[in-house]
Amino acid sequence: MSGIYIATSSEFVLDLAKRCKSGRMEVREYLARIGYEGPTQPSLENLKAIHERHILSVPFGSLSIHCGERIVPEVPLLYRKIVEQRRGGFCYELNGLFSWLLEELGYRLSLLSGQVRNPLTGRFGPPFDHLVLLVEFGDGRRWLCDVGFGNAFRKPLPLEAGRAERQDNGVFALHEEGGSWELCRTPPGGSEEATLYKFTLEGRRREDFRPMCDYHQTSPSSIFFCKSFCSLHLPGGMITYMGKRLIATEYRPEGEAKITTELTEEQIPHILKERFGITLRNKLIPKDQDIVPPSTDY
After folding, report:
1. Catalytic residue (one of 20, 54, 91, 184)
2. Diameter over CA atoms, the chain
3. Over its length of 298 residues, how does the chain's per-residue pLDDT go in tens digits?
4. Distance, CA of 161 to chain centre
């Protein structure tokens, strides 16, 4: 087996779970992975700082799918990949593991089912298309957390309909109608608001997301299956690898400035290591195919 993250049996998962209980998974190692050295007691200030450090440290993307690794959303496996192997992942991995960290730190939270809006077709994906977190404080305040979505907010958003919040990478607002919430973003220097995804407040279990985790590894209607990519937030911008391209985005008052560099296949492993801190154990097969729109608008 070339990468320990590739789970092939239930016995392997159980073995890692036992090692987790014996201290294999450690909060301090997780915090070191994201470069967080501040206080950890539950508070809004600390939550914002930890959330932002996570966004600026752990890449979001689909690389595992394109180097022959099956993604199994078991927390011990996610810890091994993201913390010990210093890799990234998609929402079921990043928010799945982040929820464990927050629980260990004493936060009360719920897992929510989101549906991502395709910016080209305007259609929403199926239920459980996206995993989102909601943290609730003792005074009843609730905050949306998401460290597993490409260009979403960097700091948690208060669950308040119609309230716009400006952050480094745009203006974010939540809208609610009939129990369905939508997250919208206006890019820096832009004037048009676009919906990123919608969600409801019904609490879910981790295992509820398993079928859609498999779907995104195999469906031609999923960006994760159709494109090999990863992205990382930076102070003042973002960097994205996709297919055989590197896209550097700088946030300016007048708008987003993008510089695209074409890559050879030989350059890609070096770019991933130097710009994203990722070293892959298996060979990556670059992919950048068109996404097939789903037949149904959910």
Report:
1. 91
2. 55
3. 223 233 333 443 444 444 444 447 999 999 999 999 999 999 999 999 999 999 999 999 999 999 999 999 999 999 999 999 999 999 999 999 999 999 999 999 999 999 999 877 788 999 999 999 999 998 889 999 999 998 899 999 999 999 999 999 999 999 999 999 999 999 998 889 999 999 999 999 999 999 999 999 999 999 999 999 999 999 999 999 999 999 999 999 888 999 999 999 999 999 999 999 999 999 999 999 999 887 776 7
4. 23
pTM comes to 0.90
Q: Is residue 58 part of a domain?
A: yes
Structural domains counted in the chain: 1
Residue 20: other Cβ atoms inside 10 A: 18
In-domain check, residue 282: no
The span from the CA of 229 to the CA of 241, in Å, is: 5
Q: Which residue has the tokens 């930076």?
A: 234
Range of the domain at 256: 10-276
In a domain, 34, yes or no: yes
Q: Which of 51, 130, 216, 233 is catalytic?
A: 130
CATH number at residue 162: 3.30.2140.20
- In the set 20, 54, 129, 146, the catalytic residue is 146
Asked if residue 112 is part of any domain, the answer here is: yes
Which contacts (CB < 8 Å, 24+ apart) does range 41-49 have?
41/105, 41/106, 42/105, 42/106, 42/107, 42/137, 44/137, 44/141, 44/143, 44/156, 47/102, 47/107, 47/135, 47/143, 47/145, 47/156, 48/155, 48/156
**Residue 67 annotated among the catalytic residues of the structure:** no
